[in-house]
Amino acid sequence: MKRKYLAVVALAVTxxxxxxxxxxxxxxxxxxxxxxTFTMNLGTDPGTINPYKTTGGTNRQIFAFAYxxxxxxxxxxxxxxxxxxxxxxxxxxxxxxxxxxVTCQDGSTLTASAxxxxxxxxxxxxxxxxxxxxxxxxxxxxxxxxTANTVTITTSQPFGMLLQGAGxxxxxxxxxxxxxxxxxxxxxxxxxxxVTNYVPSDHYTFEARPGYAWGPGGxxxxxxxxxxxxxxxxxxxxxxxxxxxxxxQINAAxxxxxxxxxxxxxxxxxxxxxxxxxxxMNLNExxxxxxxDPQVRQALAQALNRPEVTKVGTSNLGTVANxxxxxxxxxxxxxxxxxxxxxxxxxxxxxxxxxxxxxxxADGTRSKxxxxxxxxxxxxxxxxxxxxxxxxxxxxxxAVGIKANLQGLTQNAFLESLYTTQDFDAYYSGINxxxxxxxxxxxxxxxxxxxxxxxxxxxxxxxxSLSAKALSTPGPQGCDxxxxxxxxxxxxxxxxxxxxxxRPFYTSKATLQTVGLFAVPTSIRLYQ
Amino acid sequence: xxAQLAGxxxxxxxxxxxxxxxxxRGVGQWAFFVGRKLLRLVVSLLILVTATFIMVHLIxxxxxxxxxxxxxTPQLIALRRHELGLDLSLPAQYFHYLQGVVTGDFGRSIVTxxxxxxxxxxxxxxxxxxxxxxxxxxxxxALPVGLLTAIRTRGGRGRVTRTLFxxxxxxxxxxxxxxxxxxxxxxxxxxxxxxxxxxxxxxxxYVLPVAALVVGPAASLSRIVRVEALKVLDAEYIRAAxxxxxxxxxRYWRHVLPNMLTASLTFxxxxxxxxxxxxxxxxxxxxWPGVGTVIAQAVIQKDYPLIQGILLVLGATxxxxxxxxxxVLGVLxxxxxxxxx
Lengths: 528, 341
Known about the structure:
Radius of gyration of chain A: 25 Å
Shape of chain B: flat
CATH superfamily of chain B: MetI-like
Number of helices of chain A: 16
CATH topology of chain B: MetI-like fold
CATH architecture of chain B: Orthogonal Bundle
Helix content of chain A: 25-40%
Number of strands of chain A: 26
Distance between the termini of chain A: 44 Å
Mean pLDDT of chain B: 82
Largest sheet of chain B: none
Number of helices of chain B: 15
Largest interface: A-B, 56 and 54 residues
Shape of chain A: globular
Number of strands of chain B: 0
Oligomer: heterodimer
CATH class of chain B: Mainly Alpha
Strand content of chain A: 15-25%
Helix content of chain B: over 70%
Number of domains of chain B: 1
């Protein structure tokens, strides 16, 4: 009995050691496999995949397989033709000439009128979609000329990113628009794949659409290595997804937690990095809140050792953020924080709070006029690094006499705190968006109580005026203005970007490219 | 019990009454017994529904906002809340839900909008598909192991066997099923690649999840079986059967096994109920498409109707199983019907 027991233990230890080393492999991709099945795990079933009802991350990844946009973006940031083969741009108008021969799922040809109808649909108060803010954040009209096969978007004021903004709306075909319920778990687009099966809380199955040839830059779904079938499964447990990748049961999954270590050690897997802002302090400046005081915000910013928080918050795998936009390809890159964000200086923070009348008590926490300088710092539970990062932040704030009461919340409760109750003083999270104009609703404009997304009740006249100018300015000059606008927020410590992490896709016997946070369906290649 | 039914003396049973009156009284006892159990079931279910409703609504957060994304317009959020009846008062929502439960309508998932009853109909059989084979294996392992160990260790004999049995079963029982599941995954999925990591697509995919579920309960049930077997093996009627030179196998099959089943059956029923309700973690480790995976997602997403529906079905299953165990015990041991225990 004892000998058998020891043998079993030895076997288990050997197996565990072998799994840590990974399997042997030549490291080459191998021969392409055309017409196979590509299986990708995403977290949980996101519910509706109607592109006009939701802009959630998982939803967007799913409907990216079925819906095209007027223009595409390459991983290097270039704008390329997609449904539109060419375009003409003026400060407040863009005319897209549609590619000929684009078909919908029902075989009908996509017309200019159908595209214009989509733009009208998303801004109609009866069917108002969040895409309005993410595409054209101002009043506009959409007209079509079916003979010339053109769609023209005219804005009420100049918009520097009109081509890319309007060009990023997922285009829904007429039948789907007439019957929106059919889009909840089905599709009606022009994209490379269409939904053929859906099992709630389990998976979607997509099949390739024959003849598709209008992906970004003319990409198709029939290149060597392109899958014929795509299965998107919902597996919440990352360790399970990691095991499936290692055993070759699936082709792709996004892994952000501790399982990355063993996946990185396996040479048979490929990794596609997806940079994301993982740590950012967003502050609530509503009247009566402690952080409505600019001196307190400055002191808070000076108290934070961003490199240290980055090490902890990204398990030493990330970098300190120097720009408010980190989604690749970054539209307006470059260093925004140097010279703008208050530098780490505990002594200066203490002096500033002393000068503002916040006296330290016996427990080290400051108070003024009988009110303690305490803030409610909320964060989303999930990643252990987030908890560690917020604990470090609390320690650093305590060193200058600011007491941080930490509260970890589920996603539901977190969003409720931000957009319903606004019951927070600061939140540690990251806002990840493609274009700088999408940020304006988070740091200016209406609060959630009035239908906006400005959860921090930020009123920064410099940011507002610079954003307004940047909004109407195209190209490098526009980027310069966006940089100045962001720096206006940083100088006032309305927001403190801290760390950039990675939310990589790992692939097994497959490769893919990403743009922004999402895998590009036409870039997927399978290998033997 | 088989000895009692054969007319052999049993010191514990009362003297039997006259046949006709006994039959009438027996039917009356059964009717009262069954009625009492059914009433208890209904009351328990009502408490379960109410407790589930209250608990779910205590979870913080707005599920509609999370489901639609943070960019969702207030109009869309309000419309969705209205569609789901979430803008009604809590008592109104409760009575509306109760009404639905009685008619078999458990509502629709806030996230996927699929009818909860449809989700349960597809997912619950997958959970049973894991729990029932696991239970059968638990019984098939625990009964012979417990009995054989009892035979080997009765009367103070086989101390080494006893020590090993107690320690090994204690150790196996203390390992949480999800830890075992993770370990089995690492060895047999990742390292050896002998079994699939997730899903229920093939027969091979049942092996590891069932193994993870079986180990602990088999260990604890075998201990119960051994204790019960030891009591029965020392009973007078067993010594009498041995004295009559009844063949060993027949002696164990007809006299030992039936009499040691009472406590084992009770514990076995609890194990089955526990397996059905407790596969959550193992299902999550193996991506098993059962109610355990769904409820884990539903709690995070605060999908009220789904959480309530699943908890109701799982709770009802546990209650019904316990009731069946009571009925079977009532047949095997009439004293339990009279409340003698």
